[in-house]
Amino acid sequence: MTAPGFLLLLVGICHWTSAFQNVATRLHSPPVHVGRPAVLKSSQSDTHDDQKTAKEIKDLMSKHDPILLFASKLLPAATAKDASALYAWCRRLDEITDDPNADLATIQQRLTDWEYRFDALFNGRPVDRMDAALAQCLQRNEGSLNEQPFQDMIAGMKSDAVDHRTVANIEELELYAYQVAGVVGLMLLPLLGADMDRARTPAIALGKAIQLINILRDATPDAELGRVYLPQDMLTSESVSNEDILNLKSSDGYCRVVTKVADRACELLMEAEVGKSSLPGLGPLFVQIIVELYRGYLIKLQQMNYDNLNAEGERVKISTLQKIAASCKAVFAISFPS
Length: 338
Known about the structure:
Elements: H1 42-47, H2 50-64, H3 66-72, H4 77-97, H5 104-122, H6 129-140, H7 148-160, E1 166-167, H8 170-192, H9 196-217, H10 219-224, E2 228-231, H11 232-237, H12 242-246, H13 252-274, H14 283-303, H15 320-335
């Protein structure tokens, strides 16, 4: 999972991520069949339909991450185009990991194939239109956008491709959050023309916060996948077993662990909020809106007494009205700073 989800992701800055970050009750596109297909010939790449690609990416975002589609509308057109290409790559990678119809060996092979596919597009040999969009994005940002964030994200996704996914402690959880969502901030910063030295830390903090919150939102669907992302040492200290979580059995101890992770996510949101001034143009407003929207999820969790397990299999949500209110609050905060 990612917050596939703070790109544009977020855009899930996504699994802006996680996304980037997601099955069970989440909607999914058909599995991405990576394999090692023939790359697009130059004539095909040169004549591919930009409008059709844009619509495909918009549909992908609307289906999986509508909150990010809402936020992305604040970006300048050229930046939004590149950010959308980044989002599509991250989201499709996320879908490989979360394909409910694929066995573990298939997922592992697809991830390996996705690495070959990224190497191909990075070297100017895209496989399809969405890959071509990312290849063009990389060309336009040559020198400032390198392959490391993409490789780190693939490494994070590979860590999900195991039986009975667990996380040992908060440090491992934050590393995972960096790999699948924090790196999205690093992908976006060159597109925004940001000062990398000043903006790097708050951008990573925002991505990590989004991923932690998405993990808390998705506790039930993740349990159905056999995944427990809450730190094992915290669960053990509260006498909470993985079996209890997989059976959607909540307890006071479980809710205390959720509270601790939510508190850490809140700290990371504050870190991102403080550092938003490092971004040019509408960047600070963009970040503030994301911060307020995801704070809304934390407020929702608090109202639920941090019991995020439910028999209906649904993720934690906020209403459209709450999203609008959060956006208005962000505009007010930027317009009238305290």
